[in-house]
Structure formats: C-alpha cells, structure tokens
Design goal:
single chain; 493 residues; alpha/beta; eight-stranded mixed barrel
Length: 493
C-alpha cells in the first residue's frame, strides 16, 4: 500500500512539473529549454519536500513505538523483580525448613543413639545379673534335679487325657531341645530306638499319624533389641500309644525311609495355615514358618498334593514361610528346582535353617525366593568362622540385606549372646532365652507367650502328677530375668 501511494505521488509531481513548463512555454513565451529547466527545478523541490515530510512522519511514528517499547520493558522489569522477590522468599522458606528438619533429625539421631547405648548397657547389666543368679542357683539346683527324675517315669503312663497331657507338655517343652537330663522327653526316643525294630517304629509313626497324635509347637521369633514377636516357627512332635513325645529329629529319618513324610508335611501345612488364620485375626503382621522336608520337595505325588493346598491358600503367602535345610538347597536337582519355582510363582517365600557354615550365594538364593536365613548364634559368634567363610560374620547381615534376605539368629540361650549379636546388626532372634516351643491349646487358637501358663498349673493342680512341674525351673528364671529387665528400664527401686 505504501509503495502504490509513493508511485502515485511521484506521477503527480511529474505531471505538475510538466504542466508548469508547458504553461511557461505557451503563455509566458519562454523558450523550450528554459521552461524545461524550470519544470525540472520544480520537480526537484517537490521531491525534496516529500522526502523531508516522510522522514519527519516516520520519526514521529518510531518515537511512539520506542515509547511503547520502553513502557513494556518497564512493565516486564517490574514483573521480573516481583518474581525474583517471590523466589527469594520461597528459597528462604525452603532453607529455613531444611535447617529446622536437619536440627530435628540430628536431635532424633542423637536420642536414638543414646537409647541404643542404654539398651546395650541394660543388656550387659541383665547378662551380669543372669550370670550371678545362675552361679548362685547352681549349687542348690544340683540336688533337687536328681530327685524328680524317677517320678515322671512313674507318672508318665498316668496321663491319658489330652488336655492334661498338653498342660504337662507345656512345662516340659524345653526338654525336647536342651541337653539337660530330661527323662520325660529324651528317654522315650532312646527307648523306642533301643527296644523296637525299625518296622515297629514305622508302625508307631503310622499309628500316630492315623490317630492324629501329631502335635504342633510354636516358638516365637522376636525383633532385636525390642524383643517384639514377629514370627512363629512350627515344630512337630509325635505321641505314641503311651503319650510319650517323639521329637522331630527322631522320627523324620524313619518317616522319610517309610514314605510317610509326605502325609506328615501335609498335615503340618494344614495346621499351620489354620493357626496363621487365627493369629492374623489379632495381628496382621504376624507370620508362621513351616518346615518342609527334602523328600516331599523331590516327590512329585506328595508335592502336587501340597502345592494344590498352598495354591488354594495363596492369599496367606506373604505371611506363610516355607523352611528348608541348607543341605536341601545345596543338593537341588531339576525336579526340586522346578517345584521351588512353582512355589515362588504362587508368592511363597522360603527360609533356610540347619546352617552348618556361612558360605552363601545371596544373589542366587534371592533369585530362588529365599527371604530368611537362620544361623545358630554360636556359629555367628564363633571366631573361627571369620577365617573359614568368605565374609566376616559381622558383615553377613548387611550382605544378605542388600538382596532382601533377613538374618535370624537362632538357639540364643544367654543375654551375652544378645549383646554380641546386636553388634553384628542382627535384627531377629530365636531361642529359649525368649520363649521355648509351646504346644497349642486343645482348641488350637494360638500360642502366645503369656496365655498357656495358667492352664497347666490348673491341670497339674487338679491331678496328682505334681512332680512334672519340677523341670519348669528354667522358664521362671527367664521370666525373672525379663522382670529384672523391666525393672531396670523403669528405674531403680
């Protein structure tokens, strides 16, 4: 549009100049040369005037644009300044919040460290008190322990009632594991193996299974150092016709040889699931460890039966842990590996017990679904293991934790072992120090640490075989130690 107007103005100026020259030539009588010069002069003046007027107009327009631009720049500068002020305020708040949170975190860390030191001092003090009590009670306890031995032998056949036997078994449960002379538990195993043949022993096991004389004991696993119950391990016991207890180590080998271990494992799984369901009514975070033999894992028929049952209860898989021996994982064949993979696909986790050395492959175990490894406390604290294993025992918990495996110290029997295990960063513990394996009540509701004791006392009080309460000296000592621990936490009396 501007170019068209400029062309039009130029044409007009040429016509005006030509008209002026023509008028001068025709009217004024000026010669053609002079009239042409006058026309060109007029054209030049018109061109100069037009150029100057255009320049002045453009300058006024540019000045207005510059003024508008300066106003916009000023507004933008004000907005940037406002944003900078707000950003500075936000940064100040973030810095103040970070400093406050850092101060709070430092305070919390300091309190936690102080509590940890107090717990260690408390555990050391309780351990020294336990040692003094043990040495003080050592001399008088040697005499009475020899007297009750013949009495349980004489009164053992007089316990036909299931409820009374369970009450008595609750008090004699520690004898199944301890090395102390316990005629009510250790004598039946030795007498059975000495007096009966292998066939008779298998018949006894088969009759116990068919008569449903398979009892389930639960031993808690606690967190360290809080000692809060987190899991339970199911321990199996059989009773013969005379209600004498047969420990798992005594009948598992014979049951595997006779092909009965599959039925036993299936019955134990069934009862463990029932117990777990009842325990989860009170506490959703509880879990149960169930032992499975290598023979069941390698037998396709028995494993299929167990797998069908576990698939039907796969909703409990996060809280139901299947436990295998270390030798089982080291001797896995194609069938066993396939069966483990099937269980892992159902969501079940595995645990390893009966550990004889500390040579592990955490990555391989984690890939197979292992989430717990139970190591005896004596093996962890053995100084010789640092030279025979690939890693120092104090670093084992951290190494397993990198692959999602928790280390559990089992067979803990003294407070000194707890103090040493805390230095090894062991977070779970199991042993007679915390609680012995306890049988389920007749209704099989639960096996909490504090519920069963009143019933055995009432049962023993109502019946004559009172001497069976004599082996319960160890549990009161542990209760006394825990009471001393509680009094120590509260303060000096």
């Amino acid at each position: 549009m501007i170019r068209i107007s400029t062309i039009f103005i130029a044409i007009c100026m040429v016509l005006v100049a030509a008209s002026l020259g023509l008028v001068l030539y025709s009217v004024a009588g000026i010669s053609g040369t002079e009239s042409a010069i006058v026309a060109l002069t007029a054209l030049t003046f018109m061109i100069l005037y037009n150029a100057v007027s255009l320049r002045l107009r453009d300058r006024s327009d540019v000045g207005g644009q510059i003024a508008d631009l300066s106003r916009g720049t000023a507004d933008l500068a004000r907005q940037v300044a406002e944003f900078g002020r707000r950003l500075a305020a936000v940064e100040g708040r973030v810095v103040s919040a970070n400093s406050a949170s850092a101060d709070r975190l430092q305070a919390v860390v300091g309190e936690i460290n102080e509590l940890g030191n107090l717990v260690k001092q408390l555990a050391a003090s309780v351990a020294s008190h336990e040692d003094m009590l043990a040495t003080a009670a050592g001399a008088p306890s040697s005499g009475p322990t020899a007297e009750p031995e013949p009495e349980p032998r004489a009164t053992a056949p007089a316990l036909p009632a299931g409820t009374v036997w369970r009450a008595a078994a609750l008090t004699t449960a520690p004898q199944v594991f301890s090395a102390a002379p316990a005629p009510a538990v250790s004598t039946p195993a030795e007498a059975i193996e000495a007096s009966r043949s292998q066939g008779q022993f298998l018949t006894t096991i088969k009759n116990a299974i068919e008569a449903n004389r398979l009892d389930l004991y639960l031993q808690p696993m606690v967190t360290l150092p809080q000692r809060k119950v987190r899991y339970y391990e199911a321990v199996t016991r059989l009773r013969d016709e005379r209600d004498q207890i047969i420990a798992a180590d005594d009948f598992i080998g014979a049951a595997e040889a006779g092909g009965l271990i599959g039925r036993i494992d299936h019955m134990v799984m069934l009862r463990c699931v029932q117990v777990l369901r009842r325990l989860m009514v009170r506490n959703k975070d509880v879990g149960v460890f169930c032992n499975v033999s290598a023979a069941t894992l390698g037998n396709a028929v028995n494993f299929t039966q167990c797998l069908d049952f576990l698939e039907a209860n796969r909703a409990l898989a996060p809280s139901f842990v299947l436990e295998f021996k270390q030798s089982t994982f080291r001797n896995l064949g194609p069938t066993e590996s396939e069966h483990l993979a099937a269980l892992s696909q159902c969501g079940y986790r595995f645990s390893i017990d009966n550990v004889s050395d500390l040579r592990f492959e955490p990555r391989e175990l984690a890939d197979r679904g292992v989430r717990f490894i139970k190591v005896p406390a004596a093996l962890l604290l053995d100084p010789r293991q640092s030279s025979t294993s690939d890693i120092h025992p104090s670093d084992l918990s951290d190494l397993l934790g990198r692959y999602g495996i928790d280390l559990i110290a089992e067979k803990i029997e003294g407070e000194r072992a707890v103090v040493d295990l805390l230095d090894y960063d062991v977070r779970f513990g199991q042993g007679f120090l915390f609680a012995p394996p306890r049988p389920l009540r007749p209704e099989g509701a639960s096996a909490t640490a504090g519920a069963p004791p009143p019933k055995p006392q009432e049962a023993n009080g109502a019946n004559t075989p009172l001497p069976q309460n004599s082996p319960t000296i160890d549990p009161p000592q542990r209760v006394t130690g825990n009471a001393a621990l509680a009094r120590r936490v509260v303060g000096p009396s």
